[in-house]
# Entry
Amino acid sequence: MDYSQSESGISKRLSWGRVVEKLLHHADDTKATKRDSGCLSMLSMDDDPFEEALCAETVANVSDLLNETSAELLGSSKLVLPHLLLERIGQELLQLAATEPCGLRGAIVDVCVDNSKSHQSMGRISVDPDIVPTFHLTFLLRLDLGGLWPKFTSRLSNCVKMSPGFTVVKRKLYSSEGVYVEEL
# Structure
């Protein structure tokens, strides 16, 4: 989301009218054309503010999903998500969606956690349920088991911290291409 500096130096959100104006101006500049599928052409995906806003919303949905399901599925009442983890998930979403015909809108995102015993599915997010999915991403997140954190939290019951590292698997749903796996 764009922020602007007020005269007092405090950042504030732009009004919706201003955001829409900027987006419409950008759309006029790129002359984006829609295909029959409702997806933007590949050339107009670069630096698309809609794509970036959708990515931010998807990362927020991943965070909400993890926080909502952590008590039930991981047995923890408190989940600590490093900012770096969410930032890296956002970067991967944009990078992996860049070559897709519908961009991020065509994604289905599964979120799983590797708790050293098994892979626990936390949930699934359909980025745009009105679009037929074109690719499937599985984010395999890891618990932070190293350093002082586990020793510190052994005294605190039901507190789990996620590692900033993860593995992402991309499967194209419309193509016979192989599976793309990236570990961060």
